[in-house]
Amino acid sequence: MQFYSNMISFKALQQGIQQTWKYKPMVFFLYLLTFLLAVFVAYPLKSLLESTVGHSMMISDLVKGFDYTFLNDFKNAHGDGFLPIIDQSIAVLILYLLLFIFVTGGILATFIQQPPKYNRSVFWGQSAEFFWRILRLTFYFILIHSAIFCLFAFIFYTSSNGLSPFTLENEGTIAFNFKFVAPAYVLVAAFFFMWQDYTKVFLVAEDKTWVFQSLWSALKFIFNNFRKTYGLYLLNLTLWVLVLFINYSISTCIEFTSSSAILPSFLISQVFVILRLSLKLINISSVKTLYQFVEIQQNAAT
Amino acid sequence: MNVNKSLLIILLCLGFSASTQDQKQQTALSLRTANYDIDLTLDVDKKQVQAQQYLTFKNPSADTIWTMPFHMYYNAFKNNKSTFALEAKSLISTKSQEDIDQGIWSWIKVTEVIDQEGNNLSDSLSFVAVDDQNKQDHTVLMLHLKEPILPHGTYGVHMKWTSQIPKTAIRTGYNRDFFFMAQWYPKLGVYEPAGTRFATKGQWNCHQYHANTEYFGEFGVYKVNITVPENFVVGASGFLVEEKKAAKTLPSNRPLKTYTYLAEDVIDFTWTANPHFIVLEEKWKDVQIKLLIMPEHVCNKERFLVATKYTLDFFEDYIEKYPYPTLTIVSPPYYGLFSGAMEYPTLFTAPTLCILPPNIRTTETLTMHELTHQYFMQMLSTNEQEEAWMDEGFTAFFEAKMMDKFYPKGVFYWDYMGINIGSEEYRRGRFFNADNIKIAPMSQFGWLFKHQGHREIVYGKASVWLRTLEGMVGEACMKDIIQTYFKRWKFKHPCRFDFIDIVNEIVPQHHGDTFGPNMNWFLDQVIYGTEECDYSVHSIHNKEVAESLGYFDNTTTARVPTANAEKLYEAKVILYRLGELWVPQDVKITFDNGEVLMEKWNGKARSHDFTYTGSRKIIAVEIDPALKIPLDKNLINNSYVLEPESAGITRYFTSFLTWMQGAMITASALI
Questions:
Q1: A-chain residues within 8 Å CB-CB of B640?
Q2: Which residues belong to any copy of the Peptidase M1 membrane alanine aminopeptidase domain (chain B) (predicted)?
Q3: For all residues of chain B together, what is the average pLDDT?
Q4: What domain count does chain A have?
């Protein structure tokens, strides 16, 4: 039985990867969105640097990367110019979240309806259709995620006696507590992120008017198929950790410190941006696939 | 009275015999003006010290002295109206609410004073507040003598005292079973004969205890018998002479043990006790290094020991070999964190954490910093209350120098982001990030600094201008200055005038009159001034010089354009002095034909230009190309190129872009 659960999770993941590849225009759309919005923020920074310090010879050293003295002196001399860019970054981040909420309905509908190839009318039509419901759902889950985070932070803080040197035997207590609380948080938070994903699938697949109906259905579904759903979620999490690890290893091993290295360095980083976006879609697609597998089994049984 | 006299004579003899039989220094390194023989018992249940001490004072002057002031540091924690408590409000809370509610305060009380003649002086004590006349401040106890201290004479005084130890908040005290005992005994002030430091007539220097200043003490020999519960591990200034079971016990019948320590030619004595310490010992040449460390911190022992040896090696080469037989490093437990990082003679505290990753080099930085203080404040015993920059500034300067030499990857590095922060640039950055770098002159007494200005001025500004001085005069000259300063003033009490005199003596030996007859033009600005330094390249102009055409000098023939004439340019660079502080500057000018000129500018005028006429054009200008002047607050505007290289900005643009993309994708996890 457990073997079967594992297999079905693997199979869902495999199909998730295949379907993400099949509908790769969605990945590229999301990539383009992140790229353009990031340019929208990064370009003013470039202009600020060019207009204020562009003629300084210190600029040539920036090719090597992080320069504490430059950044410090720049902040002290031109820090005011940086504040609008920070504001703009926050605004762009919020805008991106809204846009992502908007397209989530389209992404899910595409995976559920499975047109032979990426279909714009399905994507945009369903994006508009589900926007408000997914927005509400996101809002509810932000509250839930915040509560879970605060709960674990509270557990960590109190079990570490408020980090107070006067009361702790040693800082090993903090490390020890962190070693337990952090993985526990990841495992528990994963459940709630998973619940959010299945709720979205139920919402779009069954076109429920009320978000709470989908919330309840998704929760029942997760508990009835806990090994499969949670196993799949952990698989997706593992894949994400793997990508991050490869990214970290490459960035740590290769030194990009010359002007000729800027382009390769940038291209590699963009590959990882695409990979991370793909993982996001793979997760949604595999969750949807698992949902459909189980539905088919239940229908066959009845 | 007679019994007391006899007892005193015995004590005196014992004291003398101890300091002659046990001494390790072949010859005294200092004048040994104030010598202490202390016998103490630590009551770990009551958190008290019961002690008696015999002080032998040698009058260093031709003055007849009628008083003796003592620092009673623990009285800073006696009430909430002490000068320390009032000043500390803006720094750190020194007491827990629980202690306040239970009325638990700390103090030190002298119960008996008898002079060498057997006169009971217990009624001749009074508290004085020499700095602010605060009557609630009892941190300086004045003893009025019945017999004067004669010129160049020796005077002995016996004291019995008890102290209630504070909970560790700032440097000293206890928490649970960890005791860190600094500034714990009645400590004599420093007698300054006329002509010493700022003294125009013979006087005691004994300030009250202030929250943001440290200490000042007289050189001497300390023989201290420390009696503690037998399961406690003890570390102290100096070296261990013997340890033996004590005859007495605590009221709770805990068996006790006595450790006898001897510290010679030091300005203070500090000790610590804790049952959990592990003692790790290593040798550096003939110096015994002792590391007192908690079991959970042993993983970081190499970080301490390697940094210690680097520092000892460095100073042996740069100044002089560390002269003491021992060096004790105390790495306090997490619950005693507030006792560090701090320097004391032949002992310092440097906290570490078992969770500290190797790329955060706090342990190494603290070790190098606190060990450097053995030179700057211990051997060169400056007054930390009046001139804190003379120990902290020099120490920060050397700490940065050593860290960058021995740990070139930086005080913090993270390969993933390509981050490396060097020690020197970090010090400079911290200084220029201060809220107000003009908050007060460096020459100001420490306790007069307001609004958190003390730290950045005495550490940051001082280390940055010392590096600037080194940049201007060169490393060899700077080394000569420091060596001369040390040779002349070691085991004495120099002040800024003494250092300034040496700078003015040594710099002309290396550079003639390049910098003028003396360096006061610079030192006055940085020590007594509050101004900032900022130079910039304002612009480059390459103006084509028009050929002379037409009639000139009453000629009858008009000059006409010459065929294929080489174009001439008036190439000019305009430099600004934006800050008030001025220093001479090197200016590097690069022309389009590859020629490079190094020009000198005295840096005084508000603006200056270099103009050249010829066929070449200026393409780049750099003020201070060798980065000799880190005191310049904005190094970005020190250079100018006509054709900017965009690669650096492109790198930052792409990095920021990718970072934004990453932030967006991470945030989308919420959806």
A1: 55-57
A2: 308-506
A3: 93
A4: 1
